[in-house]
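User: Run a structure prediction on this.
Assistant: Running it now.
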Amino acid sequence: MRIKRHFACVAVAFWLASVSSIFAARNALIVIGSTGSASIGADLSEVAQNIRKGLVQRGFAPDSIEILGAPPSATLTRDQILASLKKRGTLIGTDEFWLVLLGFSAPGAEGAPAFQVRGPRLAVTDLKPALDAIAARQFIFIGTSDSGAFVPALLQANRSVLSATAGQGEIDLPRFPECWAAALVENPQAGWKEIAARAAALTDQAYATNSLAQGEHSRLGDPATGTVLEPPFGVDTTAQPEPKAGGGNSSMALIGADDIKVEIRKPNAEWEKQPATPETRQLLEAARATPNPAGYNAILLEQRLGYKVGDDRSAEDFVMQRIYIEREDGVERWANYRLPQDPPAITTKLVAARIIQPDGSSTVFNPAKMPSATDCSSGLCGAVTMVFMPDTHAGCLVEIAYRTRHLLDTGLPDFSEELPVQLDVPVLKTDLQLQVPPSNKVHYKLRNSGAKPVETTVDGMRTLTWSLQDLAAFEPLPFDPPVRDTLVALDISSLDSWDAFAVWTRRLLQGSDLQDASVKAKAAELAAGATTRVEKIRKTYEFVSALRYVAIEFGVNGIRPRTPAVVLQNRYGDCKDKANLLIALLSDMGVDARFSVLNRGSSTDVDFPSWQFNHAIAYVPKAPASGQPEDLWLDTTDSTAPFPTLSPGDIGRDALVFEKDSVHFLTIAAPGKNVTDVQEDWHLEQRTDGAWSGTLRDSWSGLAEYEVRASVRGHSPRQRDFVLQTELAKLLPDADFTKLDLTPADDLSIPLRLTAQVASPSAPHPLCGMDLAAYFAPPERNRPLLINNGQKLQLTQTVELVYAGNDPAQDPAAFERQLAGIHAAIAWKRTGDRAWTRTAKLTIDQPLVAQADYAGVRGMLRDWSDLLAR
């Protein structure tokens, strides 16, 4: 149910893969201080190894975890610890750093807490500036005696601090670190607070079991509120089942599936048959009574969607669906479930699954038998678990519920999610719930719906609940507006503003614009011989566009461009790489160009700061004094769009432009009239036998030129001619087109032109070179229609006819009509004794046809096309 985007673009498809947690570094330092006892040192070394084990299970690379001071070494010093911390200075704000101190602490100079090591102790006044120099998000555990005073001293916005003891007076070696390590290993994917709360509970249990007076009380500094918390640190432990050894999911109080009555009677079986019950018969009766006049292959009787955000960059979502399958062609869609598994980042737990047969009997799946998730160690990173519903057919009722635990992208400074609510079948009832910690700065928007949430507090969590009735099926059609403009979805983001987005992006892009001599030399080579600013821009654009598009989105390169030198050397790159090289080359020529991001092929809600981008291009502001009168938007992703034509999916989108110290949105528009121009010129002469022959000349600009180039690019000559002749036959079906001559489609510097010889046995009445029938095939439409990908269009067709004998006795009928920003006309003019010229024009100034105008525009254009064919 999650959709995410980043700056990696795909040449054909515009949807992108998720930003993985591998885009940010995870690093940990575990320090064992002076103990004064070999046995204590050995015990703490075992604790350190358990912590390391838990961190590896959590997703830390083994070589990113360092242990200092492990026995038998007893020579660890303050300077060694500070030197090790200094090495972490290369971490950036999107990275994650864990520090664990094990051993003893005591008040030092002026009462400030200090960690015991050989020689001068590591005081909090030493530790704080060392940590401040590390930009990463930090999780600090002071697992020592007398450690509580560290918490308020170290706590800050990017740093959570946990101590094993209270502020003062608890001077014995604590048991809490051992319990904390056990809690981490027990459930490595749990949140920071959940691990601490579980450790506190285990510590309490240990003291109670041994009938000892408890001499330690852990504390947690919460960066979200700036306060110091006592156990259980705001975690609702009563709602959490005991985690199982080896990992698992800590439960979050979301909307549930309690009414799926699944009773496991055969614990060793994956599936078991159960007899009909009054409950299953009642569910079937209600399903069968559901109207389905449109004939959908399935009806979603009910869905429950929950999403909960932790304050430790974890999240959990819940999905419950109850589907009645009306026809056999709905089985494949609704009887196979792909549950995402990519441990440790993503783990999914099946809650319940049941198929109710038409006779009321049921087949029940045992969630404990769901195949285990596989991680990267098996060679199957990003694996999934499939649930195949057996013996499912029309008339069955399918019920499924599952819960997915996510570690939110550490590559992002905040989180941002799009949760689709509307599906491809009708949904009779939808309960949607969002839970966030009360301290989180979360904003949300139920897009394309007027439903309002009910806000309550559940288990200390801010809880928003929507109830939606009779949600229509989402049925996208060709020529629809962008999906985001119509699909009902819940947007969630913790980004405060677009400026916050810009701060993160600039930090991530830092260093990606570094050049070397090769880039500067290439800029000088391209500028040589160019006499104007626009000519320099054109030559540079054509050079970068000609480089191969290759998207290799591993690691941080999924969102950060490669340097211009690397792209130039490789002679390939993805959208952001090529945009980055173009900007560098232009800057070397003294041309100001700026990095810009957009949601290509879709739309951006400029009033909702979140991660909505999938594409990067360059923006060159106009410079009239230098001979560039208009802004230029340059998309070098593929090599099909000639300068300064924009590729489909770009025009009309809102792009976020990065200035030196700010960002702002601009609407992308092609220069000039921002129009697709199609010009067709026919000259046809009638022979004495009544047949016709002559020539056709075609020229294109804008999106039409892009599409023609794309249709023939890479083809052999015969393949190219076949494509062209197939399209020309649509204009004059009974004609033969020979001697086709098309200018080179791969040379963007040459305008695309086509000439052809034409021979037709009957009176020639060519149609226009735009397939209007494809746009207006249905007699009615329940949504707006987007023509020509949103770009204005001007089509002009002239047909010069020279008759062999008698020509028309009177002027043929003219045509002119205008509606909703679309103008269609046909005019005839006598140009000689036996010659006539027909001029047909179609002007589309408003490419988005409103639903209310659809029927009228369709009728007007059909009349225009019919008259052309007479």
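Residues 1-23, 239-253, 374-382 have pLDDT under 50 and may be disordered.
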